């Protein structure tokens, strides 16, 4: 067989895949009969040998993958190279080629050399054994005849689940050919894929003629599996060259009786069930910046994921956000790529965030991770297991982190190096806060059609428009006061609102901080913010209502499962009483179940640990003063030293979100909202006991009302409990886009706070090491 | 107040520090005095006469006396009130106003203290017009009543302490990390801001700054004016670089020094303006004294702190004494001659081979004993009866080293031939290690490379078991020696090359077994292998 078609610039193209799968079909039926578990083992043993040369199927970034995949020492690439082909290397130098030639030679012929070697040992398709997860899929696809055999084989349960759910396209190699940045190559890829589709279509038509009518009603396996992808490529793709050609194919398929569902706005195509997608940028956006971003997302996985769509409400932030995400997850770093995905899974599991866990599981597999790890944390290396404790404390009560938590990790047989640990901390912080983004914006699972219209039916009834408008006006006025550009003509819109506003304003400003400019004041004029703290903690609204707890939802979903018809009687009153139709209840229930299904316990150790209110009076822990350890001075330098490159990107991310503003507050334009935004930012820090001496915490009470505080606290401290009612009634009348902005502020503030805590203990540990 | 100490912070767990404990170490070169302030310190400043040192941190604010007997506590200001926290602290530089101290607490105020005040608090004035933390304050060197404060809220405010309100506000458009009056002009001051720009302002011109130039990539954390030259200014930033600028040509710095961590404070040494001390805000607990003309190795390193150093000053009376304070709560004074001289132990020889078996080497003679001579000088001065002239001039003569890299090449044999020959004929598999060494020794001997042959023979000896089995000797003889004419046969046809490649490795099952044997040989328990140290 020909060696892999590797482009000289190192970019892997997948043209050879199709050939290889066809070959596999014709040449090695016996190979397919091997159990898939054997394949995994082969894959694992192969991996050690192939470490030095990344798989040609991997996307470009995978070439950065640290070859020390599991527990191999860092010399692995060298030793494995020498181990497999010492003579070849020797001889290669003797040929006297110059370096450039040598490299090309190396790229292309190493493959062939290895293949020859492998073929000697085992007459089988060499590339088929190389990248098992994808290849399995590929073979799956190209050998429908042996389907029955495959399904009898005991595959690891989780993996097959992933395929069936079709989380992303990453496993499906056929369509990956279309995802090439180069126009010509993309065109070629599309042609290839369409050829394959057409072949299947002819086969389908042929079969349909031969078989009985009943079989015709059952579209064959190929179309069953890829129907949604074809639909997505045709109707939900930012590349016009892809979508036009797939639209033609889709039309052809529809003509032949294969249903391809055309997604329409508001149906099948909403990223969130909290709001209607009209407030977001559409994928066919013509603005150059947004367009490029959408294209990048699409190239990566063949799908613009729902959370990316929501992030695209602010394209400039989305760009920065994904830059740093790609850096920490895919660029050069101390941790192997698959470990990063696994740590991401662990982190998101702390908040039971199925959306992220599923994406990360898929990425983990497509990066060549060991599927057995996905059975649970117990199957992962001890070194990763050691991280459990640190992860859970960092997620829920970071202020209780101590040097001992670091010491446990950095000593013993499976010791973490400081650089590895710092990298892990960055990843954990990212995914903890991302859980808040996913839950806080009600993001729906990718690629799973949900009837959004049904979900949205009751949305208008939940709004309390007038009251919220009044709240908004109040805060707008306060903001004007703070920024000092208060103007009379901006205020009055409605006489009733005007009245309520005046009465509330007078009470608000009465307890504003008294500023002292006395010539010789005593220390007593200082007003301690302790009263503020006490208030913050004593809001009884923070006691979660009974229906917000996890157990409630789990019980409820079980009830629904067991008794489909009699649920009406058993369901408690409260949340569901305003829902009108049974269908609507069902679909909401589905969303709930998808988001809050139990089962991530396998990735966590102590599932019961959760956020508790930070107690300023506690004797067991202290406040973290931002003056003693803050992001800009300390955490940044620490990151710069141990994980070079990430600090600048994260700094840019924090700066951008902190300063991001459209100078709007609902309908009021040209207003300085910085006080409002920083009140949110510092409130989040305060929830975790991070104290800014120079911030007037009373302004949080002045600017944020109870409902908004509830939402912020839920999103940052226990995002899994976010309810749609909280989004709709966020305390103020805000546009959906502004609510997304507000959510992003919260999660980024949390990320910064966690980074400070996480890195501060590592720093303290190192300082102590030094002083002893 | 409700009895809560809001200034509680993290990092005190398990620290068994005894507050106000003094450690005095008398050395030949002077007194090293350390006092434990009780909690982390952020800034230090000296009274105009140099006899008192004020130091403060978030939970400490004290004045210490520094005399012949080291440090002792003079005044403890501390109360559980945030006004008593210290981010920055400056004692008034003039004798007339020696009773005034300005501090910037963490809560964004600017507070003036009068140590002669009869009130217990000693608090003279407080200004509350910054909305965020004040990062840096500075007294005007000429005008008694003028104070500057640079804040995180992006403004610099000028205070006339005779007035209750802020006199002037300078909008910097970015968070201000450092402000400093020029020692040469009455009205000029510099500001380092978070965008990485240095701004030069005139206090008479409130609207816009006189000069602005980008100096660092990222935050500027400190600026210091050159003590002699009016146009020179030193800056340090989060990008870990110290830069010296000539303001006539700001396109590039005059000198720059790359350090290992963010530079949080810079201080010119008054005695020698080429010398600059720096400290870092993370990881590096030492203070380094740099000679700007030789930027790669610090001239001197002051040790003693176990956490980062946050404040430094040169003693007003004896300018060769450096006073430092740190996060570890220590306030420390040490003479310059106590500092380590890194060049004393710095290796100055390096050798390296290239693939062509050429050897590049550099070896320079440097003066390693400068610090020793300074110490001796200091010692003799201290012991001499005349004590009036205590201040010594510490001279470090930087002799520029013209590091010459010499390259020695082996002209007898051309590289490629030797290399190819060895690669072809050395054996690493297919025999006991001892036999292989013996074989390789012979190969090297044939090529006439005696040193290599000797190396192989030594390696053979090292690996020889105590009683060498007789088969080794026989095996050496049985190994075929290569023929000279094989050497130059370089396969140019790829097919030939590939076949030889396969024949050599994969069809020779025996060599594979030997390979394993060789690996097993390596796992001989250590006691069986006598190691002859070379």
Task: Provide a descriptive summary of the structure in words.
The complex is a heterodimer of chains A (772) and B (534). Chain A has 772 residues and is mostly helical. Helices cover 59% and strands 1% of the residues of chain A. In chain A, the strands form 2 sheets. Chain A has a two-stranded parallel ribbon. A two-stranded antiparallel ribbon of chain A has the order 2-3. In chain A, helix 18 crosses helix 23 and helix 23 (418-440) crosses helix 35 (706-717). The longest helix of chain A has 36 residues, at 736-771. Chain A is globular, with a radius of gyration of 29 Å. The N and C termini of chain A lie far apart (62 Å). The model of chain A is unreliable at 1-171 and 485-580 (pLDDT under 50). With 534 residues, chain B is an alpha+beta fold. Chain B has a domain at 416-533. Chain B contains 7 helices and 32 strands. Chain B has helices at 370-383, 415-425, 433-446, 450-463, 470-478, 494-505, 509-522, and strands at residues 22-27, 30-36, 43-46, 52-56, 61-67, 70-76, 88-91, 100-104, 110-114, 123-127, 134-139, 146-151, 155-160, 166-171, 176-181, 188-193, 197-202, 211-214, 220-225, 232-237, 241-246, 255-258, 263-269, 272-280, 287-291, 300-302, 309-314, 321-326, 330-335, 349-353, 359-363, 406-408. In chain B, the strands form 8 sheets. In chain B, strands 1-2-29-28-27 form a 5-stranded antiparallel β-sheet. In chain B, strands 3-4-5-6 form a 4-stranded antiparallel β-sheet, with no helix packed on it. Chain B is elongated, with a radius of gyration of 34 Å. Classes of the chains: A mainly alpha (772), B alpha+beta (534). At the A-B interface, helix 5, helix 6, helix 27, strand 1 and helix 31 of A face strand 10, helix 2 and helix 6 of B.
